[in-house]
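CHAIN AND CONFORMATION:
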Amino acid sequence: MFKKILIANRGEIACRVAATCARLGIKTVAVYSDADAHAKHVASCDEAVYIGASSPKESYLRWEKIIETALATGAQAIHPGYGFLSENDAFATACQAAGLVFIGPPASAIQAMGLKAESKQLMEKAGVPLVPGYHGANQEPAFLQGQADSMGYPVLIKASAGGGGKGMRIVDKSEDFAAALVSCKREAINSFGDDAVLIEKYVQRPRHIEIQVFGDTQGNYVYLFERDCSVQRRHQKVLEEAPAPGLSEAMRQQMGATAVAAARAVDYVGAGTVEFIVEQQPNGDMNFFFMEMNTRLQVEHPVTEAITGLDLVEWQLLVASGEPLPLKQEQLCITGHAIEARICAENPDNQFLPATGQLKVYGLPEHVTFERTAGGSTAVNVRIDSGVREGDTISPYYDSMIAKLIVHGATREQALARMDEALSKTHIVGLNTNVQFLRYVVRSDSFAQANLDTGLIPREEAALFDQEPVGAAWAVAAAVVHTLHAERAQADSNQSVWTDPWAKRDGWQSHGIRARVFEFEFHGEKVAAQLRYLHDGALQLSVDDTSGALSYSYGDAGLDISFAQHRIIAKTYKNSDVVSIFTAKGAAQIIAIDLLEHARETHEEGGRLTAPMPGKVVSFSVKAGDKVVKGQALAVMDAMKMEHTIASPTDGVVQEVLYQPGDQVVEGAELLKLGVAV
């Protein structure tokens, strides 16, 4: 076994690998960029080395610098994690040339499976079923359009070197193909340095089911069952679970054997995932087709660990050091059900635009980080893999994922309940996240009843987006109580209030009833509230048409609030003028109106198109003098490795374009000026 390894990655996967190494007594070396100088993964390793600026191209993709660092620190091997260099065959080859072990498959296997078109040709020869499509080398736009037209729409354009949902476009009709191809190729070249694409028939109601495989240097192979990754947005996974609901044992074995055959075809070594598109027939039958092989550890590997009781990183280390696989196929079994949720910094109600900012509050449910008990089981109720801490900043340079929340139960129903409860206790303040959206997905009819396919999110759109679980009256009540509790806490810390009656905030006055006015903004609407202090010490709150007695107490669970003959338990946090409210039913935010006007002055100005997130300007589709209509695409930005189209907020005429393609902009930056059309 290795004595020291370098982890060529960052965030939660670097922390995850370091945890297994620490348990096995293996020393670890972290690498970090400017943005990650104080990151959690740096503190998780035994030593850390600076490798460059914040941009991945200047740090985590500098494989020459990483190899130099490994040699200088005495590391024997490099673990690439996922993303970055994990599927770079040139890097794997360079590691070997430098006398370092690449903890992953041989470069030949990465190369064979790295290009989707070539890998599909290879799988076809190995007898692995494929979705009908074009996987050849001819990249002429007219030729590709002809291939798509001949196979019939809808079709899927996919970057041949892609992964992670990048460089993919669904095209529903022929006239949309050319524009989608240009966008797909541009995103592919920016993400992977290769703009080659393949065209496939888009399978209706598909499920995305993948098989975890492992191979060793002695030629042994096993599959560690399947994961269902059908719940996706923008071709990126949102929730993953194992085992796949409704999959028969016969089909499980058939898919597993096919995945092993795919691995054998390229002499695979280490952890890999063979991904399949599963077509669901009206009669309940399912057909599966090879999609791609990911030649690395997957983001969702914890659900496999949860149902098998195994440490997949340990298996990677054992195999890379020349040891045989620890178990044979007949020794592997499934225990219970596991679900993983990817908690991301993004705004689901605004096309999942990525968010950046500081984690002012990072409250998590009771959980374990990765651990393996003495009995060898990782089947704990709640596990969180995270690469950040409270106070850390989510930057625009890397992926938007904050953490992975993994739950395990004896049954799927128990796992669902545990996931919803754990999400309800995940309190993040300081930037937008998808936590509440994940709760809606978990509680949706389709997911709860395992009616799964990659179209689940758009199918359940009415139940997933623009929801309000708390309501204006209770949001106001919680915000008012937060203010009262903060004032009481301040008074309790200031002993003078007990001797100075003028310092007290108990609402007493010599005659009449004292009333206090609060103003808020809730979902863009102004809400007024009046709090009346009664002589007996009681409080009366009026919010729009709702009025009633208000009382509260504070305990470990948060604020216990009674209002208008109803009661809730809420955790509240105030960040600037925004109060974040978390309840068992859901979460909400409300804004104090007295600070709002100043904060939104520039936002309310007309005739401007602003950047909704920090990122790089990719292109403008208009120039000064062009007339535009509301909703028309005007610009494309790149943020967190994805392209985002920016539309016109109104009809008008472009007066001035303020940036050039390639420019970096901050959130809220004015991209162009719009004037009134004559």
Observations:
- The CA atoms of residues 139 and 196 lie 7 Å apart.
- The first strand starts at residue 4 and ends at 7.
